[in-house]
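Note to self: the last two entries modelled the partners one at a time, which told us nothing about the interface. This time every component goes in together.
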Amino acid sequence: MKSILFLIIIAVVAGCSDRNTQSAFVGEVPKSAAAPVGTLSSESLYQLPDTFQTQDNKKVTLSSFSGKPTIVGMIFTHCTYACPRLTSDMKAIEEKLNSENGKVNYLLVSFDSERDLPDQLKKFANTYSLNKNWTLLHGSESAVRTLSVLLNVQFQKDAEGNFSHSNIISVLDKNGVLAFQKEGIDADPSETIERIKQLLQ
Amino acid sequence: MKFLLSILMASVFFCVSKAQKKAVVIEKKMATVPGGNYKPFFVTKNNKPIYVAAFKMDESAVTNSEFLEFVKANPQWHRSKVNHLFADTNYLRHWKSDLEIGNPKIYNSPVVNVSWFAAEAYAKWKNKRLPTIAEWELAANGAPKNFKYKSITDFILDWYTKPNPPFVPNVKSTYQNQYGLYDMNGLIWEWTFNFNSFIASKDSRDNSEADFKNFCAGGAINVVDKTDYATYLRFGYRASLKGSYCISSLGFRCVKDLK
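The predicted structure of the combined assembly is written out below.
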């Protein structure tokens, strides 16, 4: 009898301390948006902990692009006007950097978390003949919004599920630090190319 | 035997009272905002009313005391340690130190000088999120209770004309609206999840898609109510923000989906 009571006491006390632990948010803390990763520079966008999916259905974090300069655009594949042109602008930069083939990442991140799933991104990549230097990313609404805030890209979803957005090509250095941005489509790419070449030296 | 029983009783009591004490600190009352159509302020061909599903919203802005709990549990959000990619150098500048608010008069005032990233991180920590612009505007449109002004717009314009007080007054010190929400206007500005949404701004002649479709006719745009200066200012203010900005009149409150 005594031992049973003793067990009950232990169970109650243990249960109690468990609950206290939870209410004090120890251990169960959801990851905050800005938990630093490893030893990256404090300016690095690669600190974002969010996971994205590529056009090949691979799960990646932005830090997987470290090691090479990365050119980033934000688009959505149902876009009829600006996004195909922004993509062409990035392709034109790639062509001008032909001698540096394989030394630069080309990254397109979709605004459209709902429709631009990996399959759809793959189709877009095929339509625009994007080669293996290109990665297209699908992410959660929160992950995409966070990246847009960091890149100063404004966007808004309308009632039909399409997006109004600003058009910005961003250049990140090999550590994910924002090095250069150019706003507008059909913008003169010479400055952008110059900056990438500097980063490659 | 009796001795053991009394220990049991005592431990149960201890346990319950401790749990209750904690609960008081953590739980913030949330009000339900019923679903409805939100008419975007800037009307364009593509900018039709959006249906906003019902949601729960913190009845008041997150206070300094509440934010302190978050900072204590998340050392990367200490003022001395915060990464300036995520919060500029004004982050929590009105606090005495990393873990001290200082002035007791503001314990229960909305926390300000917090960046969008800090507000996002707080909301996630609470298993909540920041409201979208549509949600925030829908909630703020709730009719005020016991109001001496002709309209919310009159009230807001009156607020805009007043200089900022030396410190932010406590939450629940302005008015409550029909949903039970306090201070939707008149106390601070509040972060929204998608504050960086595209609107006609200085960029309206750039080559962006929205401009191509909507603003070709000399940048002519339509708004719901051209005399609604209060809303103009709010949308203009949002458009001027960046995610790392920490401003002495800008705080936030959280929302949650209805289960």
